[in-house]
Amino acid sequence: MSEWINTLHPAWQALIRVLLVVLPILMLVPGMIWWERRLLSWMQDRIGPNRVATITWSKTSRLVPGFLRGKKTHFFGLIQPIADGVKLFLKEDITPAAVDRVVYFIAPAVALFPAFALGGTLPWGPFPALTPIADVNIGVLYVLAVSSLGVYGVVLGGYASDNKYSLMGGLRSSAQLISYELAMGMSLAGVVMATGSLKITEMVKAQEAPLWGAVPTLQNWFIFTPFGFISAVVFLVCMVAETNRAPFDLPEAENELIAGYHTEYSSMKFAVFFMGEYAAMFVFSGVFAAVFLGGYNLLPIRWDETATAVPAMAGLFKFLGQMNGALAGFWFLGKCALGITAYIWLRATLPRLRYDQLMSLGWRSLLPLAVSNLIVVALWIVCTEVYGASAAWIAVVAAGIALSVAAGVAHRIAQRGRPNLEVRGVRLVGGNPAQDEAVVGGPAA
Amino acid sequence: MEGVAQSPNLLVFAAFAGVAALAAIGVVAFPSALRSALCLVINFFVLAFLYFSLGAELLGITQIVVYTGAIMVLFLFVIMLLKLQAPALLHERQDFKIPLGLAFGAALFALIGAQVLGPLQGVFQMRADPGYGAPEPVGRALFSLYLWPFELASVLLLIGIVGSILLAKRKL
What we know:
- The complex is a heterodimer.
- By secondary structure, chain A is mostly helical.
- Chain A has two domains: 17-90, no CATH class; 91-294 and 332-366, no CATH class.
- Chain A has helices spanning 10-43, 80-90, 101-117, 139-148, 150-160, 164-195, 200-206, 226-242, 254-257, 267-292, 303-309, 314-326, 328-349, 355-386, 389-415, 433-441, and strands at 55-56, 72-73, 210-211, 215-219.
- In chain A, strand 3 and strand 4 (215-219) form a beta hairpin.
- By secondary structure, chain B is mostly helical.
- In chain B, 74% of the residues lie in helices and 0% in strands.
- Chain B contains seven helices and no strands.
- In chain B, helix 2 (8-29) runs antiparallel to helix 3 and helix 3 (33-53) packs antiparallel against helix 4.
- Residues 1-6 of chain B have low confidence and may be disordered.
- The interface between A and B is medium-sized, with 27 and 23 residues.
- Chain B: Keywords: Cell membrane, Membrane, NAD, Quinone, Transmembrane, Transmembrane helix.
- Chain B: It catalyses: a quinone + NADH + 5 H(+)(in) = a quinol + NAD(+) + 4 H(+)(out).
- Chain B: The chain crosses the membrane at residues 12-30, 37-54, 60-84, 96-117, 145-168.
- Chain B: It is found in: Cell membrane.
């Protein structure tokens, strides 16, 4: 279908590949903003922006058909992002007097760059001629490397603003990003070992294998496997932290730091920061989809095998299989939308973490979890190759028990003699009242 | 030159190398610590691009992960925390540091250049062979031929981590 592209000059091929990633992201950012505002307001029992793009038809004009006269047509406020954009464009672009002008100017651009560059090795369909931009043999490492560059925009913006709140935001952000990068790398390492390749295209192919090597009609999406599920949870938390989104939005915590690193930015410079954040959300959702959710496959069903298993409906399944391949880009987009919805849901549900909670979650929970997951995956691979599958099961279960016992003991030791600050955390409605009573006194009691 | 001149790679190389050289000059030329650090970031980043364009993806990505993504972030962190400003320049009457530095720099350049440029005479291959320096052979080499140095390096890193925690904690 798309093989004619291979006849073009390599530079044109590269341009097409790049545009096919960058343009959808650019065009979907307004849609994401609309979706976030609407979904968030529904979740918070508000109405949200629903007025822009409402057409009020004339009561008298003859040009309007009779059944429309005097009526209103609503489009759910779909044009609201354009109104937002115009507002941001027309705002006065203030540059404070004390800023470091060069750095202040380039910081938003630096923040935008990694968000777009992140999609470089991400396949959105089974079309080797079109995607990914570069199918290099370091795909996952590339994602990690580029996401680690995200800290620069924030740090530079915070520093150049010459504002102590901005500086605090930048410092918090760099600490946060460095902490969560490790757990993210470790969680991906487990999946890389299971796949045996760093290429994201190979990872998607590995997920098209039979489920658990046993069910030939279903696909082995990594989120359905035990190790993949743990990796997915760790990766999900880390990706929310890497994009500075709630509940990890400490760098821009508005009740502590005004707006954090972009306090001094107005007009389009602020909009560029904003766009970078949304583009990063989009691409990270794409990475999550590609690595854990079977990439561009709509459903975890192996259509060809299903067709042979159910000969009566073979034609239908073959057709669905072809659609699964041909419309792969839309399925991938749908999974990205799912990821963004998860982001918004998290924002609506969870309150912001305190700084020590953030560090404790990253270093004491996620990193050990990801590392033990990695060890268990390694054990599984070694035992399967040397002693066979049944021995591998026993070894992995034993290792899981041993690791959780070790984690419990380590936690007990770490908590000994330390005031119990953790309990002061958030408790949702319906907690244990007796325990609540005990907590009120706090560490002083 | 005929093998190289036809290749658009030369243009790419010239652009990247020019930026890298300019950034390297900027590192020493800027009085402000932050600007110098940023120039170093650009330099490392463009070097990684050069590795990419030569087909050495793993090396390039390691360059970004280790230097651009980790070490330089810490540099910036420290510069931000200390709020390092451009130092007030003290002009000395007879500053022999500059000519001495230039002489040593030229000597070092000549030494390295003599070692590097000689073997490169008449080399026209712009890219490494496909698969050269790929993660798989690198990993295989690390865990077979270079297992002991690798393990020793990891022990060294572990000691470094423990030591930094010891230094950072006020009381254990």
